[in-house]
Each structure stands twice: as structure tokens, then as C-alpha cells.
Amino acid sequence: xPRITVIRLLKYRKWTxxxxxxxxxxxxxxxxxxxxxxxxxxxxxxxFVVPLRYDHYLxxxxxxxxxxxxxxxxxIDPVTPYGVKIVSIAHKxxxxxxxxxxxxxxxxxxxxxxxxxxxxENVVVHIDFNxxxxxxxxxxxxxxxxxxxxxxxxxTKYVFxxxxxxxxxxxxxxxxxxxxxxxxxxxxxxxxxxxxGVGLSYVPRKALLLASKALTIIRSGKVDKRFLILRDExx
Length: 235
Fold this sequence. Notes:
Oligomer: single chain
Number of helices: 8
Strand content: 15-25%
Radius of gyration: 18 Å
Shape: globular
Structural class: alpha+beta
Distance between the termini: 23 Å
């Protein structure tokens, strides 16, 4: 049951509409700054903020206790227009965990809701789309971006059905966080034109490190595999 934390920017629509019509550049700057600060705060505690919607943020947060979440809330609150609300929950299935957190954001009062639970390994899958560089050279930047979004949509549907969540990381990379008991099934479903490094660790940043290392090994040609799984003991 890895821990995930959902952060909501309060009164987001009210804030955007107060900016007038020439606002989108301001919104994008504020979102980028908020994401940067949150990523810094969580990564210092070995967590990781998964890029999703930028009026809501989702963090992998194993090992980060309620007091530390309160400290993060205290630091990020004055940076945002109307403050934030945080819900943190441990659940075997990340997709269900974020669903419960979403409901609690709506229904339960207070600025921070922290539910105790048993925390175990994060299973992070770093997926790489094959031949995107070549495709970009043959077509264009925007056409290759469209192709990436198509592939992302396909994989996201697989992952969500298995109880996981995904995020587009930029370039030709995406991230999936899945239940450990569904990992083999996901790897069987992933189309042949994709490759993936998998990292398993209690510590979120370590799981990401292992996934990136596994993907680098595949890209180097040192192993003749589309998938490689690394655990804490492998480093």
C-alpha cells in the first residue's frame, strides 16, 4: 500500500478569473512555480510529485509523516493565491487511493487530512516510446507530439484498468505507478513498440532511480530485453 498525497489549489477558478482576460501567461508561470516548489519540498523527503493537472498535484509520499505534510502545507500555502488542501492516504491501488483522496477533498473539512496505513513498495515503470526521434525528423515536432499523446492514451487506459496511474514526463517518456501484483499483467499488455525500466522500492525517489537505471541499461543494448526490473538489492 504505497502512500500518495493529493494537493489541491483552493479557489483555483476564482483566482484565474480575477486575472482578467490576458491571464494565461500568468497562470502558466504560477503553475510552474508552484510545481517547482512542491517538487523541491517532497523530493527533499525522498518523495516525488507526479505531473498531472496543475490545479491539483499528486505526490508519491512513502515515509513522509503527518507532521512533515503539515510543514509542506505551511510552506506552499502562502505561495498559492488562496492556499491549498492536502489529503494523504496509503492504498494498494494508486488509482483507488487517489479516488478516495478526491472524495475526501470534497467532503471532509480541514486543510490537511492524513490517514494512517501500512506503506509498502512503490512500483514505478518508466516507459520509453521507440523511434520517436526518427519519427520527429521524418515529420515534425507537433506531429510527433500527437503520436506521443496517442501512445500515452493507450498505455494510460491499460494502467488505470489495473489500478495504477500514469503521467507524461516530456519528450518520449511516461511514468506509470502500478500495484505490484499487476506488474506482470501490465508488461504483457504494453505494445511491442515500447520499452520500460521498472523500479521497486519503499522510497519513491529510489523507485524512480531504479526505473531510470533499468531503462538506461535497456537503451544501451547491454541486455536484449524490452523490460528490466530492478529492486533495492540490485543497486
